[in-house]
């Protein structure tokens, strides 16, 4: 049966002619399962990347109550971001596990887009599965869909006009939304040189990883598996794959 497997996909290199990105995800640790190594590459090129956590992942550790967990996970994400050259992490503190796609989520994300004015907006996979029958998580799907809308809402002064005070202006400059580790990825970025930073960044989620109780689970081995398969599609050792949603007509 093994020789019946399809050939690995072939990826286009992601464009790198941009200066700033906003990476919006549901939970602390979402970026670290593959994308952080790409962030390390980009910050190393002098690009600015800001993280936005829609929740604080406070419902993520079975043995720790949400009020206690929130602070632990926010601190872990700030440390994790610092490893890959990101010095600003925004926490929206919406409720973990029960996010709903809709106007309120779009409004919250549009505000951050207007404040940071990125060239590219990023998130993680928000398709129904991670490929095969590995179901995605509801918060990831809600955030990705809302981000696609919010980057367009942010450019329209008549949508969420109450945000346009104290000098805040519409921002219609987001050129694309990129979703990391999508099963429909078409592009990838070479992270061979920043793989180690990606591993260190994931290891910062110590309380969370301990809380999962996965005996013998190794962050390096895990990321090597994901990023090596991305690398095959780009002809390099390690790469992070992204699905690209271009905005506008171009
Ligand atoms: Zn998550």
UniProtKB/TrEMBL annotation:
Alphabetical GO biological process terms: glycoside metabolic process
Entry keyword annotation includes Plastid: no
A Pfam entry, by short name: PIG-L
Keywords assigned by UniProt, alphabetized: Zinc
Any one Gene Ontology molecular-function term assigned to this protein's record: hydrolase activity, acting on carbon-nitrogen (but not peptide) bonds, in linear amides
Top-rank lineage group of the source organism: Bacteria
Protein name (database record): LmbE family N-acetylglucosaminyl deacetylase
Top-level taxonomy: Bacteria, Bacillati, Actinomycetota, Actinomycetes, Propionibacteriales
